[in-house]
Amino acid sequence: MEKGVRLSKTSPSFLHANSTSHTWIFSAIAELIDNAYDPDCNASQLRIDKRIIGQKDCLIFIDNGNGMNPDKLHKMLSFGFCEKVEIKGHKPVGHYGNGFKSGSMRLGRDAIVFTKQEDTISVGFLSQTFLEMTNAETVLTPIVTWDSKSRQILHAPDTQGSIDAITMHSFFHSEKELLDEFQAISGQTGTEIIIFNLKTSSDGMLELDFQSKPDDIMNLEHEQMDLNTTANAVNRPVVEHKPEYTRSLREYCSILFLKPRMKIILRGSKVKTKLITKSLSETESDVYRPTWLKKTMKIIFGFSPQKQDYGIMLYHRNRLIKAYEKVGCQKQNNPLGVGVVGVAEVDFLEPIHNKQDFNKTARYNACISALGRKLDDYWNEKMSADGNNTTVNRSQKPDWTWVQCDNPQCLKWRRLPDGVDDSNLPDKWYCYLNPDPTHKKLKKHSYQPPQHVQQASSSQDNKPKPVIKELERANRQLMEAKRREEEQGEVFMKLMRQNKKVEKKQKKLMQEARRVKLLTSQSEALLASTSDQPSVSSRNESSDKKKTYGVNITSKAPARPPSKRKRHEGEHSDAIIMTSDDGDNLPVSKIPKIEREPQDVKPCNQTGVTTTYAGSNGAQNPTELGSGYLEEIDNLKRDLYNLRRNVAELLNFLSPDVKIDSDNLHQVDAIVDDLNKQNRMGQVEEV
Q1: Domain boundaries, position 282
Q2: Total domains present in the chain
């Protein structure tokens, strides 16, 4: 009675009836994992193992969470109490207040809970065996509490009865044995759940298989038999593919959370949890936002590493509700959509009480239809891109490789560089082991791994691992080397271009120099031939230098004997015949007699030239040159002046130390002679 009103009773048989909602045994285990994950407990590590206590197989759950006080423990052992709230963005999974009761009673008939806080330690007992043996009319939950420091019982009206019930109907037969069991919780806070009298199948075998794999718990499944009465078909096994997570608890725990935050240790070995959205290949993102949804829902599509496992992964508050739900073209009996996985967090839908499905509301149906259309679009886009409609040759390698830090204060996921094989990673991995320094995030926490972990890590590589500063310095040096290499490449190309320009200028200079040489030789020859004419020149004939337009023309040719007079036989007999002192014929510059009009004179390309004039009768006539010859000489002087200006400009370009004034071109001859002596003009011949 309470306030004069009778209290409702809960029949002990309800414990079993309530547990039957978990048709799949792993869903019952997931309920206990949820309790450790929720923000009120906030455990960073959960251990699941099998122990033999009092000659009985027991399933053990130990977390390092916040623990529970006696009042909270009592509400957990009762029905319908849920005080879980969101803390710092961490949303609770449980909200019915029924998970522990349904899950634990599905796994076994009895469960005992040890929980530890800084001030108190408590034991709670939920047992069908105890209720049946005592003929209880309602569910009774014995609870005992001690002071965590003095280990003295905190007396309550039901303390002694609770101790008697626990010690009589469990394998802990004394108060001391109960207190000793708290040593299994290594930290100052945490909770241990021991489930015993585990459920068995119809053949007397445990439903959970602990024998097949020593580091895993398997779901003992019986082959489905084809009972068709057709001949040769009776008792034939039905072959049907089932995802690995339906048989292996390790595989199920690896995908249980969309963003894993809690480390799970299954039978002494860490579960390698997966970021399901990061374990796919050729990923693409899409959005879904109906009119009744305030926030856009993000959907990730990609190809699964296991081709047989495909469909939509539906999460609710970070917890997996439905796995590999076939939608769209995947429902058809053809290869369309095979291998494609979609991942979505549908917090706006309502899970049913066993958290293995959603209530089939109009919103659920609309969401599934939209996911089917979007999956079809993704499939058609990928298949049309490579021109086939099969996934046989598609890459099964994930786009990224991620690993979770084992630091209890971190537990964050780090992306590894491309090419790192996650199968070679150590069992305990920490942020400082990341080869990519940009993802180490060492400043986030100062956690140091245990000594044996450091020794094991160092034993894998005898060379000392570089510290962050050394890696950063090496990276800077590498970037600087690359920058210098690029600059050197640019300078090299610039020098190549300049070299081509210089070669072009040198070639032009050589051509101009040859022209100057030829004109100089021709001019000197003509001047020498007119030296006896007063009208040609009034300069001092005894001078070696003849000034023309302000340019000194110095004859460098040594004195040579008179050239031989040679008669040019031919059609134009009256012509100038130019011969060298060694008797070789030179190019002939044909000039008619005085009475004829002057014609162009071809240049001579050799030095040491004397000019003779021959008339039709063979007589020399050097003093009878007319005005035509004077004009020809003036033209040659002008050409010579212009050519020397060009040579001066080229010399200024090629030799920075040479400066020739454009108004003082008489320096050209002296500079050219000096350059010839110093051999600074390369292949340029003597000018």
Answers
A1: 276-385
A2: 3
